[in-house]
Amino acid sequence: MGRTVIGRLRLRGADLDPLSAKLRLEGLLSGAHLSPMGLPPAATVCIRRLVDPKPGVLPVRQFAPRPPPAWDEAFRAALGAQLAHAARPAQGPVPPDAGAVLFLDPSELLACLASDVWRGTAAGHWWWKGLFPSADLTLRVVAEWLRRPEYVPAALEAVARRSEARPVLSLFTRDEAHTLLARVCVTQGLPALASALGAFEEEAARAEVMTESRASKEERVSGSDAVPLAPWESWVPEARAPGLGREHQTLLGVALMLRRAPLEARHAAFIPAVVAWRREEARGVTGDRTHESVHVVTGTREAGTSAARASGVRSEQAGSREQVDPSPLPSFERLTDAPAPGAVSRGESAGSATSAPVSGVASPLLSAPIEVTAWPAHTEAPATPSVVMPVPEPMSAPPELSSPPGLLASSAARFAPAPGRGWGLPISTGLGGLFYLVNVGLFLELYGDFSQPAFPCLPLPVWDFVALLGQRLLGEARPSDPVWKVLALLSSRRPGEAPGHAFEPPEDWRVPESWLRAFRTQASSTWTWNVTDGRLRVRHPAGFLMLDLRVPEPTDSTEALVRHELASFATGYTFTLERGDVPASTGHGAMPLERWLGWLVPYVRARLSRALGVDPDDAEALARTLLVHDARLHLTETHVDVVLALAQLPLEVRVAGLDRDIGWIPSAGRHLTFHFE
Description:
globular, 5-stranded mixed beta sheet
């Protein structure tokens, strides 16, 4: 499933020709099973030292295509033992005698690398030397984060849990933070936000309104020019802490919004809200959100800057880096529980200055000591991991803040479930074929893949799309299967929230011309139409509605309206219009979501039945062919790996292309990969 890299290999023996032995050993190991059983496909495990489990068994004196089975089995057992005791740097300090370390996915690796570099401990850890030999690790952090921007939101979430978001961001210059933000926006399906911020930067540069605040600069601000709330104010309390520059604050706010409130981050009002906030911030308007005049004293913290440099932060020329206070951020609980500081007088020093409380959430005094949140104690992974995926527990709600106009109202942040939720551990399901439905969404152009990051996706989480469609395609829903809880977790749904609870379906239905190409035939077909209850409906012979539109009462021109609506099908399709009985897809008074599914599901069922060669009226055969497949699911913060049995893969699914590897899904913020054993 992955690749194995051996940093150094030592071979001892008498009367061995070094070159011949090296070539034979390379051939033997290339045919060996070098991946530990049960390791999540997206994981990285570093093993410090591994000895030959059966010395003298490998035939290094003669050519052999693969090792003997006994040696192969013993080697895999040794790998499994190392994996069972592997330390997790993401969960806490690694014991000095640890022989192996494990990162469940690249976001975990990026977060730990950045944290260790800021702390100044990276050079002393043997695994970083193995992963990045002969490299300046401080420069490597920036290079790796810029190279893999799809993992940055999850990595920032990980360092934010340890109250280290601010010091980690201090490793990036202002320009690097700006570039990283643009790349994050593109990979997460928000290129319009990157373009809008780029246009704003150009506009601000021309107008000469973006000026850096100078140390000890004093500015009086009236309440009439109060800065609007940042769009992420309710979900990302870390971004409001003092010491973050605008670029770093925007990067942190956008990235964590994508993790904690993805629906709000992808809402149409989010982009103009971000630009409006940046415009006001660029004007140098600071102060509280009340209508009182306050004095604001800004400055730098030399002690914090010195600490960052001592920890390995690159030195920069003056003006090349925004002032980012590298001291750890206080935890969310500290922010909400801290006493509100008083107003700052003109005579106070920069080190102890603080602004008035922002929207009821107090910022801690800069002079007050801030402790780093203790990491949880290291726990060893079991040799045979297993997990029961729980329904996510409701998280604590953020402070009551007014959302910027146009954004979705939310009374509680969609924070990630608590640590220990079982990311990466295998979950057994009997409905592994449900994940093939993601390819259905891509084929229908409802979502875009990694090659189409700017694709205008359906405003419905792709995992909710899978859940809603799968429940209706299955003849028997199997509510006890853990896959439904997995889909709820991936969609960031809280307990009690149904799939698609925030989705607002359209009131009318039109099948795109591209959807009908699969049903094109040489023979003429009859399309039935009628107007009932003020709605025009056209039914395809395959059993799905092509049109369901609100229209005026029937008149002599109604048939002309029908022909006008079907004009896009005039070329390439041979059909006859006939007026007849066309029942609604759902009963009277159905909810908008049910009505939309009543339009979509019959089409998808007809399309899948045609592609898989099953009777469209046999729901059980369709479910058995496509959906009911035993699988193991490996979940991490950024990966969904579905492991299925190759012997159970129906040829029809392979021919239809429903099992193709999808890779990165921008609108979901995750990789989806199929593996067959």
